[in-house]
Amino acid sequence: MSYGDDATVRRILTASGDTWAVVGLSNNTARAAYGVARVLQRAGKRIVPVHPKAETVLGEQGYASLAEIPFPVDVVDVFVNSELAGPVADQAVAKGAKAVWFQLGVVDEEAYARTRRAGLDMVMDRCPAIELPLL
Predict the structure, then answer these.
(1) What is the pLDDT of residue 16?
(2) Which distant-in-sequence residues (6+ apart) come within 8 Å of 69 by Cβ?
């Protein structure tokens, strides 16, 4: 089951804003996060890598956590496993993001409910790199 209807997907990709924090993004080009971040960049999004190593990835300065990013973030794209994803969603709410996107295979129904209650758009178990060409 996927969470987030097509209208929500479209709104996040086209109207929520162009600064996307990509949680779990590192310079490991074999990881899905790297390929998806590249697709987002090509689509005109500013990607902000969030990873404990705080590496610069795809030309963008990285940060160890969402809280350390010194500017507003529109969408938080989550590439961590489901057990870690809920706290990231809570951090996205605290950061003032407009939307949270849990990648394919990342599912936390309680986090989804909390994030929606907080007024954010949320999509879960889908991939923006798959959805963008469908717009």
Answers:
(1) 95
(2) 21, 48, 50, 63, 95
The amino acid that residue 110 corresponds to is E
Whole-number CA gyration radius for the chain = 13
Considering only CA atoms, which of 122, 134, 127 is closest in space to residue 4? Answer: 122
Phi, psi of 4 (to 5 degrees): 110, 110
Span 79-96, pLDDT tens digits = 999 999 999 999 999 999
Task: Read off the pLDDT of residues 33-52 as tens digits, 9 standing for 90 and up.
Answer: 999 999 999 999 999 999 99
Q: Which residue carries 């940060």 as its tokens?
A: 63
Tokens encoding 76: 């938080």
DSSP E strand boundaries for 1-135: 19-23, 46-50, 75-78, 99-102, 121-123
CA distance 112 to 9: 14
